[in-house]
Sequence to fold (307 residues):
Amino acid sequence: MDDLDDYGRDYVPQAAAGVADHAIRSGDRYVGRRDLLRAVAVAVSGAEADVQLGVDPGTFYCADQLANLIALAGEPAFAGVLSGFIHVPPDRSTGAAAVAATHLLSRADNLQQCARVVATAVRELSEGTDGATVVLTAFGPFAGVIDNPTAAFVGDADHLDATARLAVAGLTLVEREPLGAATLHRYAGEGRKLVLATAVLPLAATAAAALAGRYFDTDTTAANFRRALGVIVAVQPPRAIVSLGVDSGQVLRPARPAFRVETQTRGFHGATRGRTASDAYQRHLELARLFLRARARGDGPLRFQPD
Fold:
């Protein structure tokens, strides 16, 4: 895992990378050559998606959210709370362009794979603890993404329940507790407990506004995240916060779908800078280390490629 300290440090974004969502992921070539994780998530159908360590979440809200998480980790109130960001691939239900993208998978396959990816992190977080609480945030729709698979995942009871079972054998649902901006999903079984806390972060005042690109500024979205997190913390202090966002650019890149555990960000949406943005990459390796720990164990919800 020592190689992780150097991973991505020599990454340089493509000069032509713009702010349009389809053009902001310029790390594909770097990750393809140097990825340390080399994992695969397999759906019930047998459909496969790569699981990799990303080096550039782009310049959309996903990048800004990772910067928000990095800033949060520096606050005394969240000392010891692990955080990180995972990019989820689009699927054929994501939007109009995705329907005809034959390299993309079905929504069912995507959510099953997402459950395995998230469960890998939750499994490591739950090791040696009892009653860990993991916050999962997702994003709502935006231009070109009518149905965001991350919102679909955290809103799907069956796949959340599957995540809990994959993470800790023997868990079953005890209750779901709505908290307004968030929901707590409590699990227990065989002497173990787990809580998944979920929230969807809207990117605009309405779905129609989001689809038209009339977004909130980044500070408003960050404030919405803080509000949802505050509701959760007041009831159930978290062990970890894992944010999910869709890599919609994969619609236009005809390659096998890939989940990306992001390792660094500059944290801004085009020219719109949130309070946590930086021109230099901010490194954040906590979540990546969890996945590499899972790789070292060699078992669990993911299949790991040989060295």
The chain is about 30% helix and 25% strand.
